[in-house]
Amino acid sequence: MYPTREMWDKGITIASASDHPPTPDYRPMNAIETRVTRNRPYPQEQDTDMVHNAEQALTVEEMLQSYTKNVAYQIFREED
């Protein structure tokens, strides 16, 4: 859905979070999997013949940064 690779490569700081309850799944590991694989994290819902905008995938390391370092930056706590 989001052009995350394009945004990341342009230097946009992506800070990830679990927007529960608006997001039906609050678990960060599922969100990381979704951004890396560009597919749903639930086997019964995965598209086996199509990955959504694969060229926009981020790496696991980038996603971990988006959940840690980038969130700290967002709330002005990057020195902690």
TrEMBL record:
Top-level division of the source organism's lineage: Bacteria
Record Gene3D superfamilies: Metal-dependent hydrolases
Family matches, as InterPro entries: Amidohydro_3, Metal_Hydrolase
Residues in Amidohydrolase domain copies: 2-79
Pfam families with a match to the protein in the record: Amidohydro_3
SUPFAM superfamilies xrefs: Metallo-dependent hydrolases
Protein name per the record: Amidohydrolase 3 domain-containing protein
